[in-house]
């Protein structure tokens, strides 16, 4: 093999996509990972859809929808597990999920895992997500300010936006997503089928690298947080907090894609009206790279 | 007969040709990426059947109207004032000049901070976009009032108030109209941007939402509607402007 | 105090300098004296740039002299005055007002009660022959009719002085003759003091009791010609031709000076 | 002396007053929400020390220049053509009219489809924003060429080519300059929007990035720089325009 | 074929109608005959709207007659021709070219070689007295100098006919007199056929070998006056005054008709 295969991987600067630090620390032989930072889910999914990038960390429901619309992508790896939090305003008014009744809560997108998580926990606590409170879409960067100025009473979104609110003392974590749905999947690595078909070795090496980085993060969260500045740009203390308090707030274990997790996500999508039909998971999931690398 | 052909038939043919080319070009892409006109029409129908479309159009128009009105209500008096009192204008001109080139989009974070979510920040963004053209053309319209009008007014002993209300304002009016006209354009162009800001309705939200759902056909339907409505508003404005111009003897 | 009959308009040693954009001073009018009697019709003529507009602006109060004094009715002129109305070449009509509205403007400015104002305005419009067009807007009028409207607006406030700066210069020759006759008729009837700037020699002789010929650089009075013909004057008369010849000859002189300047540019 | 006071000192005082008010107003908010001018200055210093700032400014200016140049290169010839051939203009006018009111932001999905990510779509968005003013003013400048210029040209037996190159183009030039000037404004305003599109650099990216990190101080630093640079470009353009005007005898 | 000396310009039964915006037809010129000899200086005068511009445009080829024929040198006029140059009231100078560049334009259009063109242009500018200002742009010139430049541009291509549509109307009286004299000097030297539209009676008499008086509605020729005075004419002469009187009297008639029309508006 002569030249390296260059794979453009889209991501958002959120701690969920911490695996992207692999592009900095891993030494790849046959593949070059080019990180492409986006600032919103529609933009990153459009870019993957039209082939402007080769791979992307996407929220599971978005990936499923893309696939269902015939976009030739496959999941080769999970990005992480857990990692989100319901953050509410810093007052004694809201202490339990039940207190959310009548409040306005923001989610990043109807297609987000967070939307599903919120609705799941609400239904479990016998609140009607459509009637008992107002769920609105909002760009994550605006959420902290919106919370601080009292425009919303809470939000559920990927980190570091929960931790940011905590750090600024405008919000507190009401519930971590791991307590809503233990070890839930969230962002997954979608790769275009053409890339998989043409450069399986490159994909293999990339997945292996990501998995090595995953264990590194698990074993040395403080170092990982320090090394994340270039890719994520967040303050290392915030990233560290997300990784360590508590330890499984954001987890990078068990990242081989499996049908069970996706099927459960699909069930919630149908249940909460985000999808009308199911995507064929057999065609969508491609776990051979991850299993080989593990 | 001939002008009828040139004014209606040929433009119609061009539009038809454009749609055909689009339809053919769209074949090269899957409809999720680049929908054909037929897909877009179906998307409009779907949205319209949902009832979503009409609500959103109504809301967008209302927001636009509110923002535009505010821009007019704030811009014209301030412009009249600054146009009349050149020193005040010179004093605050640097501020205006620095704030103006800042994209309304760059104001997003502050818009959320000050106005929260929903209608207010969307209206603020559109307002910002419409405000400067109104302000600046009003200033220059006032400064462009022919000196002879003011001389006549002073000569006949009209006081400052009468001169302002009865001479400067009407004399600047055609110029102000041009500004109002430009402001329609810039304001409308920022509708989509404004409605991306946590708004839960409106054409801009509809486009954002369709993007979230990866419905490119609906995105383009939204774009088309934004274009058509913008054109309609623009034409209405132009007609109004012409009527004023005729009345004022400027266009006649 | 003095026993001699005081002039309506009195200019004494008037000088006007402008500072040009480049900062150097330019003498637009240099130490000029002029007396105009009440009810007199005086024409100012002279080549372009000789200071006619500057002079009439000084009298009308739109400019202040750099030195010297400008008096009307013995009072120094400090500002424009509704008793001394200026009529401009480009009419100065308000395009958003009808003819009647334009004429009413001057009366409204003086707070004349509405009914009375309307009466006065209609009378003035009658006088200039515009009764048929009171509801038209200026853009619907020919140039001649516009200038009529502007004259009516002035007449309505019954000024004692009319300043006219090339009022007919933009009109075609036919309309111009017509309006000259109208102006004379009105002047004969109302006897205001009229100061009339023109660069048309025939116009000056047809109208003025005195023709003040000005010369440029610096702006000054070259010659004052008394035209003691009765009004209205027949433009093709022998006597008219005599005055015409005298003025042309004078003008030729001034003209050559001016032309010499033009070529220096 | 007095004009010096009015032209420099008073405007400076206004700016100082504005900064003071801002500083005081900012006390009511935590700096993460609404930073004070001092925070913004520190943020600029931080960005500049990183070296990030200068690279981003350079990239933004280069993108802007490229997009603007393309708008000029496409808009002027097309405008000249459509202005000259009124029938063609009338034929495609409806298309222009519908496409124009569509926000450049609404073009995002198609921009990604056609141009991918990085420089190209950003340039495309800025191009779109600058293109219409150039096109439309060029058309109207050509149509506004005084009839007498064309009569003279025909009278002297000048052919179509000579008339076009030597009469119509220079006669339309001052009008076109106005369009170029407007296009600087609208183009620059869409810089931020354009650079939100998967671009990995530039002032717009810097603002978006800072937003993601909740660095409101950097967001405002970016806004301020966008404003100041926009003002600088605008002034440069104005100077150029005035020079042309003087040369052409339009402004003289 | 015919033995009679053929006129330079021949109008036969010329009619020109315009369709107004409201769609009704308007007769701008009605069945008009006129013959102009080679080298003749003819002035057209008449009230506004009597069709002077329409008539000169027909001869210059800018308009086509609705019926009838317009011949120059026995050929029907179908388009503007560089041998027949029109001079406009607003000069039609290209502001982006210097005076010399403007004069060169006509020669470039005819593909005259550069060196020769420059020579001709300089000669033409010399003739109108603009040799000092060849590198100036039009906005640096006074009105009179602009019109001189435009005349030089015409002269440079050595046309056999000069059409002039109120060329001096925008100039002040002094400059106007000066340019009239210049034009006569050039005409005497080059002897082009000149058709000169004016509404200044004195100008017409000072210049024209014949004065064609037109009347409006429909546009037609009312009277043709032969002014058989030698050039240059002394404007204050007795003989001049006689022609002046005749023309004024005729005009008064036409003028009154025109005025009657104005009031009908
Ligand atoms: N506001 C001004 N600032 C500087 N110079 C001025 C100003 N107004 C007039 N001048 C100069 O004063 C001189 C006299 O000008 P003025 O307008 O009075 O001449 P005029 O006789 O009315 O000429 P025209 O016949 O062209 O109207 C000119 O040289 C002119 O350039
Ligand atoms: N292009 C046109 N379309 C319609 N009507 C026209 C057009 N050109 C001229 N006319 C009409 O033809 C008549 C003669 O116009 P023309 O311009 O020849 O008059 P003129 O004698 O040159 O007047 P002036 O002294 O005002 O220049 C007028 O009634 C005018 O309204
Ligand atoms: Mg003057
Ligand atoms: Mg004419």
Structure description:
Chains B, D: The chain crosses the membrane at residues 7-25, 65-85, 106-132, 152-169, 176-199, 219-237. Chains B, D: This is ABC transporter, membrane protein. The complex is a heteropentamer, with one copy of chain A (294 residues), two copies of chain B (252 residues) and two copies of chain C (265 residues). Helices cover 42% and strands 20% of the residues of chain A. With 294 residues, chain A is α/β, with parallel strands linked by helices. In chain A, helix 5 (140-148) runs parallel beside helix 6. Chain A is globular, with a radius of gyration of 18 Å. Chain B is globular, with a radius of gyration of 22 Å. The longest helix of chain B has 33 residues, at 52-84. With 252 residues, chain B is mainly α. By secondary structure, chain C is an alpha/beta fold. Chain C folds into two domains: 40-64 and 74-83 and 161-265, Rossmann fold (3-Layer(aba) Sandwich), CATH 3.40.50.300; 93-158, no CATH class. Chain C has helices at 52-60, 99-109, 114-127, 143-156, 173-190, 201-207, 238-264, and strands at residues 9-19, 25-36, 41-45, 67-72, 75-76, 84-87, 161-165, 193-197, 210-215, 220-226. The chains are: A alpha/beta (294), B mainly alpha (252), C alpha/beta (265). Chains in contact: A-B, A-D, B-C, B-D, C-E, D-E. Chains B and D meet through helix 1, helix 4, helix 5, helix 8 and helix 9 of B and helix 1, helix 4, helix 5, helix 8 and helix 9 of D.
Question: Secondary-structure blueprint of this entry?
Answer:
The complex is a heteropentamer, with one copy of chain A (294 residues), two copies of chain B (252 residues) and two copies of chain C (265 residues).
Chain A: E1 5-11, H1 22-25, E2 31-37, H2 41-49, E3 55-59, H3 60-68, E4 73-78, E5 81-82, E6 84-89, E7 104-107, H4 113-124, E8 134-137, H5 140-148, E9 154-158, H6 161-168, E10 171-176, H7 177-180, E11 187-192, H8 193-198, H9 200-219, H10 221-226, H11 229-232, H12 236-244, E12 250-251, H13 259-271, H14 281-284, H15 288-293
Parallel strand pairs in A: 1-2, 1-3, 7-8, 7-9
Antiparallel strand pairs in A: 3-11, 4-11, 5-12, 6-9, 6-10
Helix pairs in contact in A: 5-6
Chain B: H1 2-26, H2 37-50, H3 52-84, H4 86-99, H5 108-115, H6 119-143, H7 147-155, H8 160-189, H9 191-195, H10 203-212, H11 216-248
Helix pairs in contact in B: 2-11, 3-4, 3-6, 3-8, 3-10, 5-6, 6-8, 7-8, 8-11, 10-11
Chain C: E1 9-19, E2 25-36, E3 41-45, H1 52-60, E4 67-72, E5 75-76, E6 84-87, H2 99-109, H3 114-127, H4 143-156, E7 161-165, H5 173-190, E8 193-197, H6 201-207, E9 210-215, E10 220-226, H7 238-264
Helix pairs in contact in C: 2-3, 2-4, 3-4, 6-7
The structure holds adenosine-5'-triphosphate (ATP) (2 copies) and magnesium ion (MG) (2 copies).
């Amino acid at each position: 093999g002569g030249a390296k295969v260059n794979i453009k991987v889209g991501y958002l600067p959120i701690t969920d996509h911490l695996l992207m630090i692999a592009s900095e620390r891993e030494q790849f032989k046959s593949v070059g990972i080019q990180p492409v930072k986006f600032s919103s889910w529609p933009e990153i999914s459009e870019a993957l859809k039209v082939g402007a990038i080769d791979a992307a960390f996407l929220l599971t429901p978005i990936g499923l929808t893309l696939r269902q619309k015939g976009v030739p992508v496959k999941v080769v790896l999970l990005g992480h597990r857990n990692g989100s939090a319901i953050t509410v305003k810093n007052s004694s008014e809201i202490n339990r999920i039940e207190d959310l009744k009548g409040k306005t809560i923001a989610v990043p997108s109807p297609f987000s895992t967070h939307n599903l998580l919120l609705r799941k926990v609400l239904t479990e606590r016998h609140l009607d997500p459509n009637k008992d409170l107002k769920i609105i879409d909002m760009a994550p960067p605006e959420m902290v300010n919106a919370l601080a100025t009292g425009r919303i009473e809470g939000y559920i979104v990927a980190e570091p936006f929960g931790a940011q609110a905590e750090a600024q003392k405008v919000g507190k974590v009401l519930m971590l997503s791991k307590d809503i749905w233990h070890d839930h999947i969230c962002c997954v690595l979608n790769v275009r089928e053409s890339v998989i078909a043409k450069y399986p070795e490159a994909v293999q090496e990339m997945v292996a690298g990501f998995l090595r980085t995953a264990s590194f993060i698990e074993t040395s969260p403080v170092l990982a947080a320090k090394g994340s500045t270039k890719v994520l740009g967040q303050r290392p203390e915030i990233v560290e907090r997300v990784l360590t308090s508590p330890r499984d707030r954001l987890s990078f274990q068990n990242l081989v894609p499996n049908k069970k997790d996706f099927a459960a996500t699909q069930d919630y999508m149908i249940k909460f009206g985000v999808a009308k039909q199911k995507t064929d998971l057999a065609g969508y999931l491609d776990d051979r790279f991850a299993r080989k690398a593990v | 007969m001939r002008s009828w052909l040139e004014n209606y038939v040929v433009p119609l043919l061009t539009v038809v040709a454009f749609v055909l080319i689009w339809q053919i070009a769209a074949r090269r892409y899957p409809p999720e990426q680049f929908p054909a006109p037929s897909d877009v029409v179906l998307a409009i129908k779907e949205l319209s059947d949902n009832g979503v479309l009409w609500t959103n159009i109504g809301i967008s128009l209302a927001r636009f109207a509110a923002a535009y009105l505010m821009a007019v209500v704030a811009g014209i008096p301030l412009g009249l004032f600054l146009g009349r009192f050149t020193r005040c204008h010179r004093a605050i001109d640097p501020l205006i000049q620095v704030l103006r080139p800042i994209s309304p989009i760059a104001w997003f974070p502050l818009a959320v901070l000050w106005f929260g979510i929903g209608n207010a920040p969307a209206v603020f963004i559109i307002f910002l976009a419409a405000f400067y053209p109104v302000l600046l053309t009003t200033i220059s319209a006032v400064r462009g009032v022919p000196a002879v009008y003011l001389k006549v007014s002073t000569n006949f002993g009209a006081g400052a108030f009468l001169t302002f209300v009865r001479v400067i304002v009407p004399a600047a009016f055609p110029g102000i109209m041009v500004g109002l006209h430009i402001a329609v354009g810039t304001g409308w162009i920022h509708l989509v941007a404004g409605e991306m800001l946590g708004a839960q309705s409106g054409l801009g939200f509809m486009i954002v939402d369709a993007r979230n759902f990866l419905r490119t056909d609906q995105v383009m339907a939204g774009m088309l509607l934004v274009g058509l409505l913008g054109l309609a508003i623009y034409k209405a404005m132009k007609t109004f402007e012409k009527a004023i111009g005729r009345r004022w003897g400027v266009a006649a | 105090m003095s026993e001699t009959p005081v002039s309506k308009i009195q200019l004494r040693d008037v000088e006007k300098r402008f500072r040009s954009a480049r900062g150097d001073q330019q003498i637009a009018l240099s130490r000029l004296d002029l007396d105009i009697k009440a009810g007199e019709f005086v024409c100012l003529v002279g080549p372009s740039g000789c200071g006619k507009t500057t002079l009439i602006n000084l009298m009308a109060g739109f400019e202040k002299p750099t030195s010297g004094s400008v008096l009307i009715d013995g009072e120094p002129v400090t500002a424009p005055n509704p008793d001394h109305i200026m009529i401009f070449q480009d009419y100065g009509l308000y395009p958003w007002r009808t003819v009647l509205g334009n004429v009413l403007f001057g009366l409204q400015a003086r707070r004349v009660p509405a009914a009375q104002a309307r009466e006065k305005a209609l009378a003035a419009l009658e006088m200039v022959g515009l009764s048929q067009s009171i509801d038209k807007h200026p853009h619907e009028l020919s140039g001649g009719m516009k200038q009529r409207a502007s004259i009516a607006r002035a007449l309505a406030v019954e000024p004692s002085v009319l300043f006219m700066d090339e009022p007919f210069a933009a009109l075609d020759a036919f309309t111009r003759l017509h309006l000259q006759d109208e102006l004379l008729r009105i002047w004969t009837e109302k006897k205001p003091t009229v100061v009339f700037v023109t660069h048309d020699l025939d116009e000056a002789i047809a109208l003025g009791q005195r023709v003040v010929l000005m010369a440029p650089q610096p702006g000054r009075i070259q010659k004052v010609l008394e035209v003691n013909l009765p009004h209205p004057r027949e433009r093709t008369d022998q006597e008219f031709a005599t005055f015409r010849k005298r003025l042309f000859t004078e003008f030729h002189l001034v003209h050559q000076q001016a032309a010499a300047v033009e070529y220096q540019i």
